[in-house]
Design a protein that fits this description.
- By secondary structure, the protein is of the alpha/beta class.
- It is built from 28 helices and 21 strands.
- 47% of the residues are buried.
- About 3% of the residues have low confidence.
Length: 730
């Protein structure tokens, strides 16, 4: 079996085919087979290929009819290939000298990978300097083998097929072929990204890609651009089945928006239809929590999501002044939707309607869900509706009325609801009506800087966007929920406004004081925790200075070192919830589980870095260990409100070895650990006594006066949900 199979479709490139074949046969590395794909035995390119085959046994021409297109030609070569790794060159591409040696050496160093991306040069057809567009993408990529989540910018969507080497067994195992259509490169590259698990890059130019004088066929005007939408749908549909990746969504729709923004590519009669179809795909595939980019591209994202073709067309063809006006278009964007929403705003408020939303529509969760459940018990006359993102309807339990964000029904509900409850913020265009009541529940105790306090941290400030708009959203709040006095003070700093602070505790944490041993056992069974094992919840937080999820710890090694009875419940930050499971062996991935409260109850101990989950978990009075391997970097880039390492809830480990040791020697559950936790609980578990949801419903939904609200029960009188079994020191 040869090391490489090099497949060279020749349609339309017969005049330059010899240059491509010479560049391959002139390589110093000789373990390859060369497969020119010709239209037919009597085609011009076939004669060229036959001459090379007569002189070199490594050359084997194969045939694919021109009507099969580029996809058919490549698939023909793929079926004929016998090499371990496949390279796809266009008929007018050339391999750089020493390219195969470099590829072979890199593969020898990385071991077996699914795809190896290499740099390539885009060479002007006549004059000008070659460009190396892959180099900036590779600059931040890991040195060794990595998964897609570790370097989401390095994908087959952004890189040409000619700049990659694919393992043949990988393509065969996943039945990956080039999809039909002119945008087959994008479809194939996207499918490879969805399935690849082991990726590497080679920081060296391997292929020189000639830019044709007539330009790319894909840039020419015509109906063929609708295939871009078909390929996008194909890739994202496959991605949804394997755990969605937001970066892939962003890259695909960057290509879609680029075409939509160039009217010359589409006939006038088809531009609106292209946009509408793109809007439908956007809404269908947009991942929960997806954050649109900044600047003009972000405006295009929002207009596409809203189906606002008129505004998009104005932005597309206008000068800077019109573009700035388009940026100020309030949401909802679509003209008809805006008119419909404005009409609904003229109707009276429904005094018995409450609208809830959590995590930007991610599902039925957190404080809004706990308040919703308590309202059904104490205020059954109030009709409650939960808002969710398209595609997240499954995240709402049966029997819970819900509406899809962006739909006409959702905007009608937002216009007429008297009560609006959210743990983040409602859309920019939501109007605060006189007589309506907005409750901001928050979704954690602030360790990291929040709101306007982020303004001095460039990485976070860039992602936050306009602080003026942020404060405009704060001005809609009537009440803000707090679980401790620290939070009360920090919310006042981070979100200055005229709202009333409700120091009632977090409703989502009520279950920590009301759950029984049977509830804990049930949750452990649902999560698959083996009986008699010590379950350690590992919940790292999001890093603003990183892209993609990095567990930051070898969890299998941790289990081995910590003890035979230890299993790990891995819960990544909700930004990285794509529905895929990362667990194996003694690692149980619970990232996609709807309830973080259930996950906490199932755990005998918590290991986290700087996640706010530690403040919630402390209510259970179970061991907590802080894994602070990059505390200095985190405080520098994100900013914190207090020194966690000086006042931790338990032992602090700075290395994987230290972390394993505190479990192996039992110090994670020692009296010293309990002492630290007691101080921590007294400071941060002040109001979480199991009745927070009741207090909120009585005050906000039922309008009871503050003095009639049940007081907070002292910490010493609370009985946390019991652990599954007494901790056993390994």
């Amino acid at each position: 079996m040869p090391r490489f199979s090099i497949i060279v479709p020749s349609h339309g490139a017969a005049g330059r085919l010899s240059l491509a074949l010479d560049s391959v046969l002139g390589q110093s590395f000789g373990d390859f087979e060369l497969l020119p794909v010709c239209d037919a035995p009597d085609a011009p390119a076939a004669a060229v290929a036959a001459g090379y085959a007569g002189r070199d046994g490594r050359v084997t021409p194969v045939f694919s009819p021109p009507e099969a297109g580029l996809a058919g030609a490549r698939n023909t070569g793929l079926r004929a290939a016998t090499g371990a790794y496949l390279l796809f060159l266009d008929g007018d591409d050339t391999l750089a000298p020493g390219a195969l040696d470099a590829l072979d050496a890199r593969l020898a160093g990385t071991g077996e990978v699914d795809v190896l991306y290499a740099e390539h040069e885009r060479v002007p057809w006549w004059e000008g300097e070659p460009a190396n567009p892959a180099a900036p993408l590779f600059a931040g990529a890991p040195q060794g083998v990595f998964g897609p989540g570790e370097a989401p910018e390095v994908t087959g969507v952004r890189l040409p097929v000619c700049g990659a080497v694919h393992r043949r067994d990988f393509l065969t195992a996943h039945r990956l072929v080039f999809p039909e259509g002119p945008f087959t490169d994008l479809g194939f590259g996207g499918l490879v990204t969805v399935h690849a698990e082991r990726i590497a890059v080679l920081r060296r130019v391997v292929v020189r890609h000639l830019l044709r004088r007539q330009g790319s066929r894909l840039d020419l005007p015509g109906e063929h651009h609708t295939d871009l939408l078909a390929q996008t749908d194909l890739v994202l549909t496959r991605a949804a089945g394997r755990g969605f990746r937001g970066a892939l969504f962003a890259q695909l729709f960057a290509a879609v928006l680029k075409t939509a923004a160039h009217p010359a590519r589409l006939p006038a009669s088809g531009r609106r239809a292209f946009f509408r179809r793109a809007t439908a795909l956007y809404r269908r595939h947009r991942p929960a929590g997806f954050r649109v980019p900044g600047g003009s591209l972000g405006v295009q994202h929002r207009l596409l999501a809203a189906g606002a073709y008129t505004a998009f067309r104005a932005l597309r063809g206008a000068n800077r002044k019109v573009s700035a006006a388009a940026r100020r278009v309030p949401r909802p964007h679509g003209l008809r939707t805006r008119l419909y929403y404005r009409l609904q705003l003229r109707r009276p408020l429904d005094p018995h309607l409450a609208v809830y939303c959590a995590y930007w529509g991610r599902g039925y969760a957190c404080n809004p869900a706990a308040i919703h459940a308590k309202a059904a018990e104490l205020a059954p006359h109030i009709r409650s509706v939960f808002l969710v993102e398209p595609g997240r309807e499954h995240a709402v339990p049966p029997g819970v009325d819900h509406a899809v964000l962006g739909s006409r029904r959702a905007w009608r509900l937002l216009a007429r609801a008297t009560y609006l409850v959210n743990n983040a913020n409602f859309a920019e265009g939501v109007v605060k009506r006189e007589g309506s009541v907005h409750l901001q529940t928050q979704h954690g105790t602030p360790l990291k800087k929040m709101g306007v306090d982020q303004s001095t941290y460039p990485v976070v400030a860039a992602a936050t966007g306009s602080f003026t708009k942020l404060l405009g959203r704060v001005d809609r709040w009537d009440y803000n929920l707090s679980s401790n006095t620290h939070s009360t003070q920090m919310w006042e700093r981070a979100f200055p406004g005229s709202y009333e602070q409700l120091e009632y505790g977090y409703p989502r944490n009520d279950v920590f004081c009301t759950a029984t041993a049977e509830d804990v056992a049930r949750v452990r069974r649902e999560l698959g925790v083996p009986e008699g094992r010590t379950a350690v919840l590992y919940a790292p937080t999001h890093r603003d200075h990183r892209t993609g999820f990095d567990p930051g710890l070898d969890l299998e090694a941790f289990c081995e070192a910590a003890g035979d009875d230890v299993v790990v419940l891995l819960r990544a930050h909700y930004f990285y919830d794509r529905g895929a499971r990362r667990g194996s062996g003694r690692i149980i991935d619970v990232t996609a589980h709807r309830s973080s409260e259930d996950v906490c109850m199932a755990a005998d101990a918590l290991v986290t870095d700087y996640s706010s989950i530690m403040f919630d978990y402390a209510n259970l009075d179970r061991p907590i260990v802080v894994y602070a391997d990059d505390w200095d970097v985190y405080t520098e880039t994100r900013g914190v409100y207090f020194d966690l390492l000086a006042a931790p809830p338990g032992p602090v480990a700075r290395t994987p070895e230290e972390l394993a040791r505190v479990f192996a020697d039992g110090s994670y559950a020692s009296e010293a650990s309990r002492s630290l936790r007691n101080v921590f609980r007294a400071r941060f578990c002040q109001f979480d006594d199991g009745r927070a949801a009741e207090r909120v419903v009585r005050r906000v939904l039922l309008g009871e006066p503050a003095e009639a609200i049940p007081p907070v029960r002292p910490l010493a009188e609370r009985v946390p949900a019991p652990a599954a079994s007494p901790l056993v020191i390994s």
